[in-house]
Amino acid sequence: DTGVSQNPRHKITKRGQNVTFRCDPISEHNRLYWYRQTLGQGPEFLTYFQNEAQLEKSRLLSDRFSAERPKGSFSTLEIQRTEQGDSAMYLCASSLETSTDTQYFGPGTRLTVL
Amino acid sequence: KQEVTQIPAALSVPEGENLVLNCSFTDSAIYNLQWFRQDPGKGLTSLLLIQSSQREQTSGRLNASLDKSSGRSTLYIAASQPGDSATYLCAVRTGGFKTIFGAGTRLFVKA
Q1: Lowest-confidence range among A38-52, A95-109, B97-111?
Q2: How would you classify the pairing of strands B105-110 and B10-14?
Q3: Residue B63, beta-bridge partner list
Q4: Residue A91 with chain B: CB contacts under 8 Å
Q5: Cα–Cα distance between A88 and A110 in angstroms, integer?
Q6: What is the rounded distance in angstroms from the CA atom of residue A63 to the CA atom of residue B103?
Q7: What is the Cα–Cα distance from A89 to B43, expressed in whole angstroms?
Q8: pLDDT confidence of B95, banded at 50, 70, 90?
Q9: How far does the CA of residue A15 sit from the closest CA of chain B (Å)?
């Protein structure tokens, strides 16, 4: 197992277009998180899945954002009608439900909205 | 509302120096605190995780401490090396599943 993977690594789109990102967690991890990070800032929490259930969602996640994790495996994050303010690095992390619950991050998808 | 602050925002030190990075949080009701390293344009690498019941954790040249009552954590790096140059992020997990990050400390170790 090589860790958390994310695809694509880079995405350039025009304002108003829809984009979808994919995250493949570490195979035995049942917890999955999405974050957004802008330049010079720490990651901001977007949403959390335990298996296939979306249990927590930030108010940052507007109606244009939706995330899924069918069958509790990979997850997708879709942004509809993208805006320039959506330009950021989108990070995915996974963890195993244990007492330590260490989060392991993927390399991120960098989104640029023109 | 939980807020996490990291001081200093940037730090430049000569190779071999011992250094301390600081993290403070406003709400002591945390589940755990995690320190990460981030290289430019890359994802985050977990360094140390301290549970709310613990006072410190050590890994190699790194030592992290936690004082919940004062809302503080420190990351101590011994004998710094140029390869330690990166941004160091502190993250606090609340009682739910939300993790709040600080803005990070950008460290540059000069050879």
Answers
A1: A95-109
A2: parallel
A3: B58, B76
A4: 43-44
A5: 6
A6: 26
A7: 9
A8: confident
A9: 23
Q: How many helices (H) and strands (E) does chain B have?
A: 0, 11
Centre a 10 Å sphere on the Cβ of residue B86 and count the other Cβ atoms it contains. Answer: 20
Nearest Cα of chain B lies from the Cα of A18 at a distance, in angstroms, of 23
What distance lies between CA B93 and its chain's CA centroid? 13
A60-69, A93-102, A103-112, B56-65: least confidently modelled range? A93-102
* B94 shares contact with chain A (CB less than 8 Å): no
Cβ neighbours of residue A53 under 8 Å, at least 6 residues apart?
A: none
Both tokens of B73, joined, read 């954590």
Q: Taking Cα atoms as reference points, which of B70, B19, B76 lies closest to residue B47?
A: B76
Q: Which tens digit of pLDDT belongs to each residue from A46-93?
A: 999 999 999 988 887 888 999 999 988 999 999 999 999 999 999 999
Evaluate whether A44 touches A29 at the Cβ level (below 8 Å).
no
* B33, B56 contact by CB (below 8 A): no
DSSP track, B53-97: T-SEEEETTEEEEEETTTTEEEEEE-S--GGG-EEEEEEEE-SSS
Cα–Cα distance for residue pair B63/B94, rounded to 1 Å: 22
